[in-house]
Amino acid sequence: MRLLVTGKEGQVVTAIKQQAADKGIEIVTLGRPEADLADPESLYAPVIEAKPDVIVSAAAYTAVDKAESEAEIAEAVNGKAPGVLARAAKALNVPILHISTDYVFAGDKTDFYVESDETGPTSVYGLTKLHGEQAVAAETDNHVVLRTAWVYSPFGNNFVKTMLRLSETRDELNVVADQQGCPTSALEIARAVLEIAERVSSDADPKLRGIFHLTAQGEANWAQFAQAIFKGQQERGGKAMTVNPIPSSQYPTPAKRPANSRLSGDKLAVAYGIKLDPWEKSLDECLTALFSNK
Questions:
Q1: SS in 3 state form for the chain?
Q2: Distance, CA of 139 to CA of 284 (rounded, Å)
Q3: pLDDT at 44 over 90
């Protein structure tokens, strides 16, 4: 199978490239300088030329706070580029997998979000990602939208690596405790993406298409996530850290974050038989990888 994946250095892209080799899957990455998501139409010709069996729309504008002042470029990358990719997928008669986010929701639900819940993004980033979902669906029925959340991995920039870096110069940290979510490893996302790609490339069942939530099992707030990171660090011979839980009001940001980012993965489990590991187990795998490189 030949997979075209947008982006070259993102967390999910890197994880996909690492794991595809073990499965004998050929990966073609698409990004600058060959094509630029900020210029969506530049994507069409290279995708057609690559002739993939499945397209994975993984790259995105992910600077959540910066998007508040760079709405135009965020909309081009997150809102319009996925539609161009989906148009190319339809022309090639192949499926497209599009990675989306918990930020499409307002975050005011008291329970886990399901795919049919009403969207209501509260940030430019969330709005542009919702536009991307809508653009993909408008271009082709042969699509799978995968909403994930709180992504981290042994590579790239993410919360886990930030916490470990800050611990090098501090003994305690204030971390927000009134935002709930499902910390999800890019390693786990990549495994699921490859499995889903193989399935949809050979199975035309409509039940395998549409929107699905792809997050780790369990839940945590950011302070609990940080505490688990530092517990893992200490278990691997690193220093102990104190985490002081604080409300979001004490850590203001340009973009409003959803208070509830918990996504239910039940629909994915039923359709594909895929259930990601509990986040604590995936975090342990990530920390093992990070500390083995030290």
A1: CEEEEECCCCHHHHHHHHHHHHHCCEEEEECCCCCCCCCHHHHHHHHHHHCCCEEEECCCCCCCCHHHCCHHHHHHHHHHHHHHHHHHHHHHCCCEEEEEEHHHCCCCCCCCECCCCCCCCCCHHHHHHHHHHHHHHHHCCCEEEEEECCEECCCCCCHHHHHHHHCCCCCEEEEECCCEECCEEHHHHHHHHHHHHHHHHHCCCHHHCEEEECCCECCEEHHHHHHHHHHHHHHCCCCCCEEEEECHHHCCCCCCCCCECCECCHHHHHHHCCCCCEHHHHHHHHHHHHHHCC
A2: 39
A3: yes
Please confirm, yes or no, whether 44 is among the known catalytic residues.
no
What is this structure's pTM?
Answer: 0.96
Q: Parallel, antiparallel, or unpaired for β 96-101 and 242-246?
A: unpaired
pLDDT at site 294:
65
What is the distance, to the nearest Å, from the Cα of residue 204 to the centroid of all Cα atoms in its chain?
A: 25
User: Which residue of the set 125, 152, 251, 272 is catalytic?
Assistant: 125
- What pLDDT digit, counting tens, does each position of 45-80 carry? 999 999 999 999 999 999 999 999 999 999 999 999
CATH dotted code for 2-157+184-217+261-277: 3.40.50.720
Domain segments of the chain: what residues?
A: 2-157+184-217+261-277
Average pLDDT, the chain: 96
Strands 180-181 and 220-221: antiparallel
285 close to 236: Cβ distance less than 8 angstroms = no
| Token duo for residue 9 | 């250095």
pLDDT in tens, 219-252: 999 999 999 999 999 999 999 999 999 999 999 9
* Overall residue count recorded for the chain in this entry: 294
